Amino acid sequence: MYSLIGVEEVIKTIYTLSHPYLQPGQNPSLIDIKLALRKHLSKIQPNVSRSELTEIEFILSGVRIESLLNALMIEREEMDKKTPEQLNQKDSLKKVMVGFDDLCKRANRISDIFRMVIDTIVVTTDVKISGSATISNAVGIMWVQPDNWWSNADILEALVHELTHTLLFLDEQRYGHYSKVESLNDEKTWVPSAIRNELRPINGVVHSIIVAAEILNLRKELHFKQDELNLHGNSRDLIIKTKNSLDAIMQKPASWNLLSKRMQFLLETTNKLMNSLYREIIGEEEYVAKP
Fold first, then answer.
1. Residue 191: which H helix or E strand, with range?
2. Which of 288, 167, 151 is nearest to 222 (CA)?
3. What does each C-alpha distance from 34 to 71, 221, 227 come to in angstroms?
4. Averaged pLDDT, 231-260
5. Sign of CA dihedral 273, 207, 252, 196
6. Is 34 or 129 the better-scoring residue by pLDDT?
7. What was the pLDDT predicted at 259?
8. Phi/psi zone of residue 261: left (φ > 0), alpha (ψ -120 to 50 degrees), beta?
9. Rounded CA gap, 224 and 203, in Å?
10. How far apart are alpha carbons 30 and 5 in whole angstroms?
């Protein structure tokens, strides 16, 4: 989101949602906005446990963790023996926190956004399949479980992946993203997603497109090396899948017409970014020749 519309526009959305909970005439700090946003989210999602800290809370255990994992629909398992890919709690938390600190240093323009909108990061070691997740019913809560083979670049990509979902949830609260929510599950409107390359409802597809675009832009800005990238695959394949997904949704009226003007604008902006990345990374000749 921040690459598509700019940091200032993202902060405007956060401020707009937070505004009713700020003091009149206040010149709010980032912490003031974070706390006001927390009040906004607590009102519309009262069953979600929120941190009492002003900074992001990283949790491995405690009274909040089970309710947050339930909210995120993440299931833990009793495991007698860990696989070689699984980390212990100390190493898992260290890996995520080192990655977060590195992201804030190397991509400092999104550091303030991250700290404003992310309330809690739940780190586990006992979920069957490692990964990361956020959900629209618990905005501001993030789950991450890295595997041993995740590189630092993978951690950064996982954090940006879930941050992008979170910013899209907030953008939807402000603008609305779908004109016919009741038709989202109509399989005739489904198109391939950008990351999984599977037919999915378009609300999942538009998220995957914008997440992929942000990941590709992050790779470009931070100069990741291809051998560092395990989680989302190589850039060439990700660009092709994302462009195919964009073309499918933009060229299919039954799908395109389910989107609000706001989401259509976001996808059109994403398409411009992807065209530029396609030319730059894959090449002008293939861009011109592609069907």
1. strand 191-192
2. 151
3. 21, 27, 37
4. 92
5. positive
6. 34
7. 95
8. alpha
9. 29
10. 20
DSSP secondary structure string, 194-255? SSS--EE-HHHHHHHHHHHHHHHHHHHHHT--GGG--SS--HHHHHHHHHHHHHHHHT-HHH
For the chain, what percent of residues have pLDDT higher than 70?
94
User: Do the Cβ atoms of 230 and 149 come closer than 8 Å?
Assistant: yes
Task: Give the Cα separation of 23 and 278 in Å (integer).
Answer: 46
Specify whether the CB–CB gap between 205 and 191 falls below 8 A: yes
Contact present, 158 and 92 (Cβ < 8 Å): no
Q: Is the pLDDT of residue 86 over 80?
A: no
Q: How many CB atoms lie within 10 A of CB 25?
A: 5
**143: phi then psi, degrees, rounded to nearest 5:** -115, 135
The predicted structure's pLDDT at residue 145: 94
Q: What would the pLDDT profile of 50-72 be if each residue is shown by its tens digit?
A: 999 999 999 998 889 999 999 99
The enclosing H or E element of 145 equals strand 141-145
**Mean pLDDT, range 80-97, rounded to an integer:** 76
